[in-house]
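Running low. Got one?
___
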Amino acid sequence: MTDMSPLDDVTVVDLSSGVAGAYCTHLLAGAGAVVVRAEPPEGHPLRRRSASGIVSPDGEDGALFRFLAGSTQSVVADPERPADVALVLDVLARADAVVWDPDSRLAAVPALQPAALHERFPALDVLALTAFGLDGPWAGRAATEFTLQAWSGAIGWRGLPGRPPVSVGGRVGEWMAGTFAATGLLASRRRRASDHGGQILDTSIFEAVALSLTNMHPVTYFAEAGRPRDPAPMSLLPGIHATKDGWVGFMTGTGQQWLDFCVLVERFDWLDDETLIAQGERERRRDELTAHIDAWAAARTTAEILELAAALRVPAAPVGNGATISAIDHFADQEMLVEAPEGGVVQPATPYRLHGKASLPAPGRAPALGEHTAEWARRVADGRRPSTGPTSGPGGRLPFDDLRVVELTAFWAGPSAAQFLGMHGAEVIKVESPARPDGMRALSLRAVDEEQWWEYAPLFHATNTGKLGLGLRLDRPRGLELLVDLLDTSDVLIENFSPRVLDSWELSPELLHQTNPGLIFVRMPAFGLTGPWRDRTGFAQTMEQASGMAWVTGFPDGAPQVPSGVCDPLAGAHAAFALQVALAVRDRTGEGMLVEVPMVASALNVAAEQVIEYTAYGVLAQRQGNRSPSAAPQNLYRTADPDDGLGGPLVAISVETDDQWTALVDALGRPGWAQASELAGFAGRKAREDELDARLGAWCAQRSADEIVAALWTAGVPVARVAMPHEPDHTQFAHRGFFETVEHPVEGSTIVAGSPVRFTRDRYPVHRRRAPMLGEHNAYVVTELLGMTADEYDDLEANHVIGTGLRLDG
């Protein structure tokens, strides 16, 4: 190891006030960046934040803030004092980037807003985090995580028969937005190595929610299938079930896993019922199936069930929560949860590991309010500024246009990490076996007896744009030799198979680095490369169950429900971030490394508040349905629109601040019931939630959704129509070009979601190349990149080492 931290040459000023900005800078500081938090005299709002409602004692910062602000610095500046604003500007003159959101008093100063900062400091990257983005018809409108989930469709598709649809608990969208933001910021920084101008990175939390919480690219599916993938609210089956001593969660992502599950729960008659392979049929027979599964699970302990499931390779996990996850054996063995630097609190460890000569800094404590103000004032007073280099360059360069990436991945998490690199210029070569291609191809719109059925797979099309396709049999010695030859000329290898798969191929970092010492090898196993759960099968839903994300999703009187899928793009974004940290090291040293990014580690970080609150305050977060510990009133309300047969139409209303409450009362016409003095404060509203729900429910029931949105949103109240996830007709999406049209030679036109981080200087479509057909670019890779002759190519094809379509024989 060296004393060099990967990002120790990067300085970032944090002008944000919410979780998204704080998690963005938390990731940067965790990789060694100097993060300076500019705070108003009352301090960052998260210093006083507690999801449980506990107010920290005077002078003591909240536990969540201490986690997110670890290893950062604090400068206090009063926005009413010109000298203080000048100090912040002088700090910014020495920075590489600034993270901004509109809700801090400092961020409201005209000189500290994105356009003004970009004009004043053209070499600075200005990352702006807002609800809907900086422009468009919805820019600046009131929103909360809850209403963003409703607008995007993240609520509408999730629920159980006879119950309202339900939101994802824990402000996951804000954490996701922070991850995307940090990943985009490093990409912009890498472009500046050859094209020195800074830019505004316009990040929409709404788009982050739409990309990650709506169950696997529903817009693309709808565009190709002509019907929604999730036409009604639904939940996993099998899902989460009570055991003799807790809860256990299952995920049967493939037909074989469902068959294995039938053996697990001793229903061999279900094995013979081919209709149950389809999730829709299982949903139709929910009562019948759950009656048996519930009884079977209730007769056994969680440990007994997990042991049986592991033997049958059925993805399963204990349902963790703030009180239990630190005792889970794998998390303890792998030190995925650690004691905070201040002691007394358990928090997640860094969500990735570097196995190389550079090291990540040890987690540091959070700064006291204004602890570094005098130090920065002295730096400014000395008059010296670091050279920022030219503020503009030749232009036209993309962040990764010098990289070749080889991808050995399947489903969503791994492909999304590689897709990010392709979006921004890398040559990405996706390797698939003609005998066993990416499992996303199996989710086809065509029957398996139809020609080229594997090419009619909308979810594959959505997660694999920007890539070349290589059909290569790695179960053949010659196929492995070709892969190693390709890796000798590549910069990055990304894989997300079970660790035992690469073990069987003997593709170790040590072997690959013998001939290509600069190779960065990114591995994305479900649970990590070592530990008790190393060889267990896991999907996104498994991570959501184990980490606590499912624990806070659902209604108080029911079982936990998984967000269902968010951990795939979450893991992909964390892997793209960790890869860029490794690239920063290689750019300075020339040396590659192994980067380990367990899916579950990302989930634990996003669910951090649960274990932090429990170990700090002894308060266990619980499911609250569509309510929130930080908003009152908040819920879904039926409108006067005709019943659509799905329990709606519904609107979402969420009031997080006293000002929003005042705006709501005014919009309602100041009715007498709303004038009670205790309702002016959050505690009083929280105590009367049932009454407020009844009042709002009666008011909404007399109006259409459009009338409700028009009346409340214009008044400044966070409100939304509860959409379904396949509805991309929002004018805000269209204005910002979030969805892009892609042409496919078999499927035709399709629509694919873009990136929540929009580069305002480098405006280019991120889906410049469609997803590849199976083995489509074999000739290019074999003859041009590997330099083989046409005869050698024909021999490889004749011996089925390479292939251009699905071949199950030979």
